[in-house]
Every structure is written in structure tokens, then in C-alpha cells.
User: Fold these one by one.
Assistant:
Number 1:
Amino acid sequence: MSNLIASQKVMQHYLAALLTEEEQTEQVVLAEQKKQQLNELLSQAVVSTSPAVTKTSVQPDTKAQVKADTEAKALAALKERFAVAEKTQQLQQRDVPVAERLATPVKAEPQQPQVAAPVLKDYRQGKFQALFFDVAGLKVAVPLKELGGIHQMGKISSLIGKPEWFKGVMLYREQKINTVDTACWVMPEKYDAMLQEKLNYQYVIMLGNSDWGLCCETLINTYVLEQDDVKWREVGGKRPWMAGLIKKHMCVLVDVDAMIDLLNRGLDISA
């Protein structure tokens, strides 16, 4: 019993570290974006309000006054641009045409090349179901719509020259399944001889339409999740394979496509 409690505490610390790192990454990216926008607005405001000054029109005793007037105009212009930008953003979020509501006309900015928005996966819209399973005390979840099937563990043939986490090839009917030692892939820093000896893989969780399967010890259950139940991974980071963290269950939600890409390239979580 003491070993089980200790194992659960280790997994909780591990997941808490994942969540803290993802939140810090998001905060840094958002702060940098806000800082860049502020610098651009300030630069534009100063340039647009700076008067043309000639040597003959400005006397030495009026330079301080000209500088003060310039700074005051720049600050006023900056405040006005912030007010217009904030009002525009609020109206856009309410899906109200900006041109019909703004009293002050906004000067059209040069159009930037449009980048196609990433297509949201089905499970990122409304409720969705996920399968929860257990690997060495760590709970992992896969969206049901990204699940390719579940097979009982069968005979596995190991191959030479493969990564440590590549357990081998399992035949299911006429399909060759590349099995992944999930504990070794997800927790390489904790994977030692003692952990390896305790593992008792029973099932193989297929990833989408690929030939990759994750070995697991126990199938826990399927749950219906709301979007707010997940701490989604919104920005780039070290773990592209992780779609997010399911807060209530302290559980990793797998981004199946990203994980397949890493496996195809022979990379594990440390990549």
C-alpha cells in the first residue's frame, strides 16, 4: 500500500510540473506579443505627431516647449489609438460590424497576407468522449474520435536497431502493429529496471489510422468531457504530443496526430 501511495504522489508531481510549464510558456508568449504591440503603437504615434521643425523657425529657448508639445501630442494620439483598438476588439468579439458602431472612422491599415487558420479537430468543438487508460500509475486519455481500436496484447517480435521505447511488431490478423513501450516513451527519465519489471501490459491502444499502438496496463473507462474540463495547450512548447491536461482527473490528453508524427520520426517525449 505504501508503494502505491508513493507512486501516486510521483505521478501527481509529474503532471503538476507539466501544467506549470505549459502555463508559464503561454504567459511568456502573451507578454511578448503585448509588449511588441505597445512598442509599434508608440512608434507610430510619435512619428505621426512629430512637427516639421526647421533651424530658422525654432529658437534655442523654445526647444524645450516644442519637445513637451510633441510628447503631449504623441501621448494623446497613443491613448486615442488604444481606445479605438479596444472598442474594435470588443465589437468583433460580439460579432457586430465595426463600421456600423464606431463613431470615429478608423483608417484602414495595409492588408497583410492572410494565413489560413488551423482547422479545429472534432473534439475541440463541444462535448467529446475520451478513453482513459493506465500506464505505470500514470493516467493517459485519447479522444475516442482519434482512437483506431483496442487489441489484447499478443506475441511481439523485437527488431534490432530500433529506439529503446520501440517494443516490437505485433501481428493482428494481417496487420503489423508497431507497439510502443508507453512508459519508456512518456517517462524516459523514470524508466529503470525496477519500473520495467513491474510493468504488466495487457492491451494495445491504436492511434488513428496508423500502424502505431500504445501498450497499456489497464483500461479505466470512457468519460464525456466539456471543453472547460481541459487545460488546452494553445501555444508551441516542448510537448507537441500533448493536447492538454484534464484538470479534474489530473490526466494527459494525447494529441494523436502529433504523437504519430514523432513516432514516425523515431522521437520520444524528450524531443
Number 2:
Amino acid sequence: MTDIVASPDWLADNLDSVRVVDVRDAWEFDGIGHLPGAVNVPFEEFRSDAGDEGMLPGADVWTDLLESVGITPDDTVVVYDDTHGVFAARFLVTALAYGHRDVRLLDGDYSAWTRDHETTTDTLNVERSTYEVAEPAEPFLVDFETVREALNSDAVLVDTREQWEYEEGHLPGAVQLDWLELVDDETRGLKSREELASILEDRGITPDRRVVLYCNTARRISHTFVVLRHLGYEQVEFYEGSLTEWEARDGELVTEE
């Protein structure tokens, strides 16, 4: 099974056979530099509250974005940002939701890449492609009713926000796991598999359990979703509406005294 996380060395060896997407702002992409062969799809261009469920941009917007940078459904896509991968992970989840089969997160980010690999300010000329969205290979998005029913099941609900946010209000029975706990400060990439497994096990988030992820607007859970897929978790559900929808629909919240 292909790993959903790509190491910098692997990417350096395969730059000619993959498509690389940089989701930073255009001024960073153009002014600071980017990976060789990368195209720029800024985060704000694929986030919308007027598209599909949650913050998904809508199939038409997504199709136009990918066609504009020359990506086809058969491409292997590797995504990065300069924020430990959390914005890039959101692109990855969006791609999976719209049926892209092979998309991966660069382990680390732009700053980590620059330590051992070259960057460029050259602009890549790409021809517009033809792109069609499809059903996801493995459906993973869940809605309000599914999450509400999960409260009374043996599923583990995971809140990936900071501790103070969790204390101000969280779903009943949810465990708190700040997504940044899974990131290594030194490498800027993921902690080792052993460290990740230990952190998750301490919270009761084990591979044998059904896991339901949420945060505020489904950005931070994107990173945690990638980590769990990377570790081989098979029952990972992604609440796209997250607390934005949950609160709007008067879902029950618990506060910590």
C-alpha cells in the first residue's frame, strides 16, 4: 500500500514523475522560492463556505483549479506548505474527497526541504489539462447526524484543537489531541512512528477503534487524518462540518471547569 506521506528524499528522487503543489500564498511562491517543478494553488483558492459541504470549494471550482495548473486525475500529486503541512493536508483531503486517487503530503514543509534540497524561483509553464472529479475511493466524510449517533457508540471522537479551545467547549466524550503534538519541532515533519503510536495510544486512539475527527473548520483535522492514514488506521471518519456546523445546529457541547 502506498504511503500517504512522502519523504523529502523520495520526492527529490521522483520530481520528474510527480506533480508538486505549493499551497502557500503567491507572494511566497514567487518571492521566496519553491520546489522545482511546483505549481501554486494558494490555500484560500480551495476553501469556501459557498461550495459543497463544510469548507469544500465545490466540484466546479476544484475542477477549474486543477485544470489551470495542468493536473490530471492520473497524476501522483505531492503537496507542501511552510506550516508543518497543515494547509497542504487540507489540499490532500480535498483531493481525496473529490476522488483523486494518488495524493501525498510532503513530510515536513518548505523550510525543512531547503535544508538539504534545492529550490527555485523559475516559473513552470503548464498547459491546461482536463480534469473530472469522481467519487472517493474510500468515503470518509461524515455528517452531523452520523457524528451525533457516534456519541452513543464505542467510537473515539478526537478534538484536534488546542487545550484551551477544548476546555471552552467540546463534543461529549471527545478526547483532546492538538494536531501539533504529532509534529517534530526539529525536523518540522512527523514524529517517528513509535512516538506517534505512543501519543495516540495514551489518548485511547488505537488502530482497532473507529475514529471520528473534528476541529473548528476541518483544517487541523486534515493533518491528523493524514497521520492516521500514514499509520494504517482503517476506520477514520472526517467531520467536514466540524464545530462550525455542530454549533449552528445546536449540537451538545461540554465545557471543562
